Amino acid sequence: MPGRSKWQMHILTVADRGGVRLFERPPNRKSATLECAMKPLVPRYAVLCSDGASAYAKVASQRGDEHFVIGSKLGKRIAAGNHHIQNVNSLHAHYDKFIRPFC
Question: Which domain of life does the protein's organism represent (predicted)?
Answer without folding.
Answer: Bacteria
